Amino acid sequence: MLILFFIVIALSSCKSEYTKAVEAGLSSQEVFDSLIFGMKIGQTKKDFYSICWDLNKQELISEGPGNNYAKYIEPYDSTSEMIFRKEMLFYGIFDESDNMVGMDMIYNYVSWSPWMDRLQSGMLVEDLKEYYSKNYPGNEFMRINIKDTNLDAYAKIDGNRQILIYPKDAKDVAVKIEDLRHKFREQFKDGQRQKT
Q: Of 175, 184, 177, 145, whose CA–CA distance to 158 is shortest?
């Protein structure tokens, strides 16, 4: 019996920090559904397009490159340097029933150039970690490895919601918000408590 106890302890200690955070988030039964621009996990593709249409009419967003993303450019804020204004391309992530299970985003600094160290993707990753920590409070970001890459990625897990941030190249940074109940469906149980 004592040997079995030590085997269980040894196996549980082999789990990565990320796996433990996913399991803790899903078992907490807390539901965090906030995405961006008032959009929420669980809305339909029709809802996504309707909200984007309204944002476009207000001239807050426009069509992104290749019509694959919507584009948002951060407005100029006199309290910060204009050089650090960000552009965000975004599009919903949908399941087989066209329900939104996350958001796929690509950020860059509008003034990016290859010779400006302050505007490279590594700096933007830190900027975005700070932004998402402040605006989506809860757990801290942890460093993780993305399978089959050498990228420094960061994940923040609060209940069912994961925010993943990683550099795509010298200019662009990917941010993905996902519903872990969808990503790990077999581990999801009913009865979540709603939180935003």
A: 177
Q: Give the number of other Cβ atoms within 10 Å of residue 147's Cβ.
A: 5
CA distance 137 to 65: 31
Place of tokens 């965000």: 88
Q: Which residue has the tokens 């050498």?
A: 150
At 95, the amino acid letter reads: D
Distance CA 160, CA 183 (A): 10
pTM here is 0.84
Report strand pairing: 30-32 vs 193-195. parallel
- What is the residue type of 86? K
In terms of Cα–Cα distance, which of 51, 22, 53 is closest to 35? 51
Q: For 65-88, write each residue's pLDDT tens digit.
A: 888 899 999 987 766 678 889 999
Residue reference for tokens 């433990």: 20
